Amino acid sequence: MSDGQSPTGRLARRERVTKETSVSVAVELDRPAPASVATGLPFFDHMLEQLGKHAGISLSVQAAGDLEVDAHHLVEDVGIVLGECLAGALGERAGIRRFSSTSLPLDEALVDVALDLSGRPYLRYEIGLSKAAARLGSPPFDPQLAEEFWRAFVNGARLTLHISARYGKNAHHLLEASFKAVARALRDACLLEGADVPSTKGVL
User: Fold this and answer.
1) Cβ contact 71:148 at 8 Å
2) What is the tally of structural domains in the chain?
3) How far, in Å, CA of 180 to CA of 50, rounded?
């Protein structure tokens, strides 16, 4: 575990090792760089790469888990560690913009995201995927696991996140639009625009 200020900005590293998974994540908020992601789930890797790219951050995720049982453990634990990493990089959250929202299209899909780096974890997720939605990639990624990822991420990062699809049919498009939209909202909410904690409480 490490947090702090590098010559280029806010950063954090976290690791989590259980009997089911091993996860290592590093985040640097103020240094855009190509994401380095390897989880054993190519579609999930692609989504995390979108998150790093469109959030304008440096992101490294290395993870392994019991994929022969199910991908749930791995996806959830990556969410936990990534969220904790974001919280560590934000520190006391002084000077951040805090709030952001965006609408993002991907072909026929349109997804709305609203985000508050509030210090209070809450997720509302309304993507509306059919339980019979086809699994994506090989090894397969169950589209329903995206909600579990975001819930774990929200709890780890201590933020409020609303994700909802206005419309869309293709599961790939809906999920990718979701990850890109959250990324763009994070990019804006994490911006430094002052020195004070943006709350009348004085803490987040």
Assistant:
1) no
2) 1
3) 6
Backbone angles phi, psi at 41, to 5 degrees: -125, 95
CA R_g for the chain: 16
For the chain (204 residues), the mean pLDDT of every run of 10, in chain order, is: 61 97 97 96 98 98 94 97 98 96 98 98 92 82 96 98 96 97 98 91 88
Parallel, antiparallel or unpaired: strands 122-126 and 160-167: parallel
Q: Which two tokens stand for residue 175?
A: 């999920």
188-192 own/partner pairs: CB under 8 Å, 24+ apart? 188/97, 188/100, 188/102, 189/96, 189/97, 189/98, 189/99, 189/100, 189/115, 189/116, 189/117, 190/29, 190/55, 190/90, 190/96, 190/97, 190/117, 191/96, 191/97, 192/95, 192/96, 192/97
Q: Which two tokens stand for residue 166?
A: 């206005």
Phi and psi torsions of 156, nearest 5°: -70, -40
Residue 21 covered by a domain: yes
Virtual CA dihedral for 135, 124, 69, 49, nearest 10 degrees? 60
Domain of 22: which CATH number? 3.30.230.40
